[in-house]
Amino acid sequence: MKLLLASQSPRRKELLSSLGFDFEIVKIDCEEILPEDIKTGEAAAYLSELKANAFRELVADEVLLTSDTVVAIDNQILGKPKDENDAKQMLRLLSGKTHQVYTGITIKSVDKTLTETDVADVEFDEITDDEIAYYIQNYKPFDKAGSYGIQEWLGMAKISKMNGSFYTIMGLPTHLVYKILNEI
Fold it and tell me: 37, 68, 129, 130: which is the annotated catalytic residue?
């Protein structure tokens, strides 16, 4: 099996490598636009499958892995911030509250496509404007859904509770990926 990871995320590369899989990084160009009526819990899987379907035709021994993570609070989906102000608004919205992180994965071969979503609840302590400014200036979370990375300063300093997989929050539900790839 030749595993192809369609992600530019250094976190996903690190996690898949740490699971012991050999893989090649591939690039997929597709517009990640959600239908307006999509349910919050279906968005990450939708985007993951959208990416998988935008990839070229696979050959017999290839397996493609795509993934997408969305953060949601009160059924409002927070994607990647457009700019610094957008990141500030997102972090203010998450401050002192519990939100959900959904990560969808799609594993596709020539003859089948499997898509699954894992969800985790994350609770933040209150985050001050100074802490938000510090985090954005030093960690530049513009490539992260919800404007934060659990493995970075904000996650370490402000997440008080979580229910679900740390790795799902980080961007790849490793337990699902491992299980599915070992079943193929």
Answer: 68
The span from the CA of 34 to the CA of 47, in Å, is 7
CB distance 40 to 72 below 8 Å: yes
CA dihedral 14, 16, 22, 27 (to 10 degrees): -80
CA angle 68, 102, 112 (to 5 degrees): 55
What gap in Å lies between CA 13 and CA 167, rounded to an integer? 12
Q: Does the annotation mark 130 as catalytic?
A: no
What's the predicted TM-score (pTM) here? 0.94
d(CA 179, CA 184): 9
Residue with tokens 């996690």: 15
| Chain segment 58-94, per-residue pLDDT in tens | 999 999 999 999 999 999 999 899 999 999 999 999 9
Amino acid 18 reads: S
